[in-house]
Specification:
alpha/beta; Rossmann fold; nine-stranded mixed sheet; 9 helices; 9 strands; globular
Length: 248
Amino acid sequence: MKTQQTGCVNSPSKLLDLRDCDDPSFRRQYAELESLQWASHGLAARLTFRLLRKDWKLRPIWSRRWEYPWAIQNGGLGRGLTVLDAGCGGSPLLPYLAQQWQDGLCLKGVDKGVERVLNWKGRLLHRIGYRPVEGYCSRLNRRIEVLQESLDAMSFRAGFFDRIFCISVLEHIPQDRQPGSLRELGRVLKPGGLLLVTMDLNGRSFAEDAERLVMASGLSLVGSLDYFVPRSLRHSADYEVLGVVFTK
């Protein structure tokens, strides 16, 4: 397995660590992301979903309190970069980056499920003020373009992106299609670029899973997997969360 060491005290490729969530920068960034996501919906929609107690991608998923700040802080973002959110769904990540960087980043997203909010139900919800990031990024912010595409067959030319984020997406792809998706993400990544992936693990070795991802992608792992997190400081649910940084 190829690895590339960095100057970080702790490797960027690691398990979710509750100690990170206590960091003021993690707290601040997640609060801004959460606020941005709720603010994109009208008052009627917010009240409706609170009363109905539906998920609709608005209910907080607490592992995101680690995943989003971890990805942003390890992404090495800078002006002039082209950024992809792969499997963007209802994520507030692209609008957050647009807000923080203004016109400094070229932002694109892909998600095969964009059509879900373009049907009659999506249009009805949009009328009452429900504006999910998925499918409406281009309307909410001209600096964001979202395409309805599968991760294993994207239309971008090779080496198009400087940074690719893939947050909690791979575990929702059938395992036999994951290698193809990773190879496609590697194809559209520029040499020297970064691919940041988080995924849920169910009782498997995080080192073995990370090695499987690296082998499938053909990319190099940034840092080392020799990062120990005490069990009491990991994800408290019945699964682990792994963050891996690749380079090309």
